[in-house]
Specification:
The protein is α+β, with helices and mostly antiparallel strands. The protein contains five helices and four strands; from the N terminus they run H-E-E-E-H-H-H-H-E.
Amino acid sequence: MSDLSELYQEVILDHNKRPRNFRVLDAAAHRAVGHNPLCGDQITVFVQLDGDVIRDVSFQGAGCAISKASASMMTDAVKGKTVAEVQDLFHQFHAMVTSTPDALPDVDRVGKLAAFAGVCEFPARVKCASLAWHTLQAALHQVPDPVTTE
């Protein structure tokens, strides 16, 4: 295993064990619920906007290490960004986790989220990694129905 792969594994494990922004955000005007029936991941994403800027974001729920780490890292990555910037980051992340294993992520655009680049080698885990992102999209667009990966 390369040093970079080991580092990425450590980052994911750290965010799973000590998730950032893992709390209910009472001031959130936007929220959505997501569920991955394949492995049982469940998440609620809370978003507080100031105009079109994400002032605060958090999540609650339970799931596998990939799902929880992805939600944790997502909340860190989108805080302070505009909705348009978040849309771009969502598309970059989704393309990265669904690409071919030999495609390198654009680290300048995805930053620490590059830790999930290896997920594309495990198609069943793509839904785990992207659940929080799809749930964030639903929260931003105020979709009332729960998000499901099926």
